[in-house]
Amino acid sequence: MKAVGLYKYLPIDHPESLLDVEIPKPEPRGRDLLVRVRAVSVNPVDTKVRSPKDKVETEPKILGWDAAGTVEAVGEEVSLFKPGDEVYYAGSLNRHGCDAEYHLVDERIVGHKPRSLSFEEAAAMPLTTITVWEALFDRMGARPHRFPEQAEQSLLVIGGAGGVGSIGIQIAKQVAGLCVIATASREESEAWCRELGADEVIDHREPLSRELNRIGAGEVDYVLCAANTELHIQNMADVVKPQGKVCLIVGVKGGQPVPINLFQSKSVAICWELMFTRPMYQTPDMQAQHDLLEETARLLDEGTLRHTMRESFGPLNAENLRRAHAAVEAGHTIGKVVLSGIG
């Protein structure tokens, strides 16, 4: 079957950074679905895995961790899906990615595709939606379904116009009922955040405590940092309330230590969110990702949430995928970028 992969880890402007390749078509076993991939999305994790390093693969490495498609066949233990079902999901870091004609994925991390969305629109949603849902409700302990006491609580989303921020604003506002303050640095990204429901938008190029004071807001109950952890560590310590909660999703560049003692006097809870944790470690609650994708599909179909696709790069092939990687790697995309399936 056709796929897009790599043998060498090269800068994205190198013609061999991503290649059109042929690999064997897999067969589903156990709880796996074989999905005919109809669309994929590109995330920062794709570019980080592909980034230059001194390593050569003997077999093509296939990237891609956001897909929508149709179930072609199922393993003997599958109970949640059947052939012909339309699905969307993010997959697992320790398995082949979805930049291919067909893809194997465990049914416990797959949801039925929202009926109201195209395959391209649906492919934009899983990874970021799972990230935000787990960050808010599993890691920081906010509650879905708009509990009354949360109407007075606030969330600061650092990086509001990116993929995570774009769905994060919506879930925090429409599902958790929080007051949402997002950060953005350009007119078009500020407008996008407001369009998605942010109550306020501030500039992350400025000290965030000063920006919050400018809009008449005090400290916030929750912080979701979707960009530049090391750059914003002092900002987060300055603006989170005593006994507040901070969730980080971006690793520190170079693995350098950051001063978490900044949060000690406020007894702030600091947590990490990596949406691949459940499938990578086969946790007992792995099927929670299926459940939340099913709930998100319902919310998308009823219009409570909206998709975050902003740009399509055409059919999935090496040339188009290199262009999409370059756009994401540049760090100026708004919402999500997608490609339709191969062929």
Verbal overview:
The chain is α/β, with parallel strands linked by helices. The chain has 2 domains: 2-125 and 278-340, Quinone Oxidoreductase, Chain A, domain 1, CATH 3.90.180; 129-272, Rossmann fold. The protein is 29% helix and 28% strand. The chain contains 10 helices and 16 strands. The chain has helices spanning 44-50, 119-123, 126-139, 163-175, 187-195, 208-214, 229-239, 277-281, 288-301, 318-330; strands spanning 2-9, 19-22, 32-42, 53-62, 67-74, 86-89, 102-106, 110-112, 154-158, 179-183, 200-202, 220-225, 240-248, 269-272, 309-315, 336-340. The strands form 3 sheets. Strands 3, 5, 6, 7, 8, 15 and 16 form a 7-stranded mixed β-sheet that branches. The protein has a 6-stranded parallel β-sheet with strand order 11-10-9-12-13-14, with helices on both faces. The longest helix is centred in the middle third of the chain and has 14 residues, at 126-139. The protein starts with a strand and ends with a strand.
Q: Top keywords for this entry?
A:
single chain, 343 residues, alpha/beta, Quinone Oxidoreductase, Chain A, domain 1, Rossmann fold, seven-stranded mixed β-sheet, 10 helices, 16 strands
Indicate the radius of gyration in whole angstroms: 20 Å
- CATH fold descriptor of the largest domain: Quinone Oxidoreductase, Chain A, domain 1
* Approximate strand percentage: 25-35%
Principal-axis shape: globular
Element pattern in H and E: EEEHEEEEEHHEHEHEHEHEEHHEHE
The helicity comes to 25-40%
**End-to-end distance, in Å?**
11 Å
* Strand-pairing-aware structural class: alpha/beta
What is the CATH C level class of the largest domain, in words?
A: Alpha Beta
Question: How many DSSP helices?
Answer: 10
Number of strands: 16
List the domain count as a whole number.
Answer: 2
Annotated CATH homologous superfamily of the largest domain: Medium-chain alcohol dehydrogenases, catalytic domain
CATH architecture level-2 label of the largest domain? Alpha-Beta Complex
Which stretches are poorly predicted, pLDDT < 50 over at least 5 residues?
none
* Main sheet: strands, sense, barrel: 7 strands, mixed
